[in-house]
């Protein structure tokens, strides 16, 4: 019965009613106190459960991180670091992992058949043969690469820098003209500088049948349509020849049917 509906019975005194009301209030207060204690207890239990769950999740996350790192290490070992490590003797496109980081493998054309008995394991970084790809590109495109490795393409200056900055590499240039003549140029050293150096070209001694057109550009910076780093003051060689290159000056053009440029590490 609600307190405001209590009615004094015959013989009850206000003191008795006051005692009854006080007892009911104390009883309800006790109930509330018990509910509060129960809530606090269950809150503590939930906090303990929450802590345990978070601890289990944290342990699982750490375990997964370790397992992922181990998987990356194993996969990194399975992928070849360069075309010289590809277990084949047939020219084709392969994924390589030169950085030892499974998140950064990329596809390259590995050449094993150059018709000049120079062996295989060459990584192709430039291929032009039918005009299907526009090479008049900006700096960013030449930095990261473009085209299809199975056709005309440019591998990317940043990849060239990272793959040639350590050790010693040799450069092979294959040339075919419209008269059916094929020739090549071989250089005993090849290295590309960093982007801060504008991907400076370093080549060694030249040998074999083709004219030595690369040594003239030795030490020059790379130029594109939006970065003119050549030594020619009168005009931009990249704009003149509609393509990016290590231009020292705007040289005389010779028409070729196809060009393929590739490199490999020297043992």
From TrEMBL:
<dbReference type="InterPro" id="IPR002181">
    <property type="entry name" value="Fibrinogen_a/b/g_C_dom"/>
</dbReference>
<dbReference type="GO" id="GO:0005615">
    <property type="term" value="C:extracellular space"/>
</dbReference>
<dbReference type="InterPro" id="IPR036056">
    <property type="entry name" value="Fibrinogen-like_C"/>
</dbReference>
<dbReference type="InterPro" id="IPR050373">
    <property type="entry name" value="Fibrinogen_C-term_domain"/>
</dbReference>
<feature type="domain" description="Fibrinogen C-terminal">
    <location>
        <begin position="74"/>
        <end position="267"/>
    </location>
</feature>
<protein>
    <submittedName>
        <fullName>AGAP010774-PA-like protein</fullName>
    </submittedName>
</protein>
<dbReference type="Pfam" id="PF00147">
    <property type="entry name" value="Fibrinogen_C"/>
</dbReference>
<dbReference type="InterPro" id="IPR014716">
    <property type="entry name" value="Fibrinogen_a/b/g_C_1"/>
</dbReference>
């Amino acid at each position: 019965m609600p307190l405001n509906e209590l009615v004094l019975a015959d013989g009850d005194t206000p003191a008795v009613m006051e005692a009854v009301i006080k007892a009911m209030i104390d009883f309800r207060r006790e109930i509330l106190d018990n509910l509060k204690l129960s809530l606090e207890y269950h809150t503590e239990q939930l906090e303990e459960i929450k802590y345990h769950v978070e601890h289990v999740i944290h342990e699982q996350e750490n375990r997964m991180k370790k397992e992922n790192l181990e998987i990356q290490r194993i996969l990194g070992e399975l992928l070849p670091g360069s075309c010289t490590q590809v277990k084949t003797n047939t020219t084709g496109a392969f994924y390589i992992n030169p950085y030892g980081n499974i998140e950064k493998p990329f596809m390259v054309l590995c050449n094993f058949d150059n018709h000049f008995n120079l062996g295989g394991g060459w990584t192709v970084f430039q291929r032009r043969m039918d005009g299907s790809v526009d090479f008049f590109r900006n700096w960013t495109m030449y930095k990261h690469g473009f085209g299809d490795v199975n056709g005309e393409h440019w591998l990317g200056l940043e990849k060239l820098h990272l793959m040639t900055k350590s050790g010693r590499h040799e450069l092979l240039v294959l040339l075919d003209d419209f008269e059916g003549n094929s020739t090549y140029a071989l250089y005993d050293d090849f290295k590309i500088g960093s982007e801060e150096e504008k991907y400076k070209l370093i080549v060694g001694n030249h040998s074999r049948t083709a004219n030595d057109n690369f040594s003239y550009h030795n030490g020059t910076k790379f130029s594109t349509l939006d970065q003119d780093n050549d030594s020619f003051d009168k005009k931009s060689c990249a704009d003149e020849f509609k393509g990016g290159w290590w231009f020292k000056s705007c040289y005389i053009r010779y028409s070729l049917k196809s060009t393929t440029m590739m490199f490999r590490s020297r043992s």
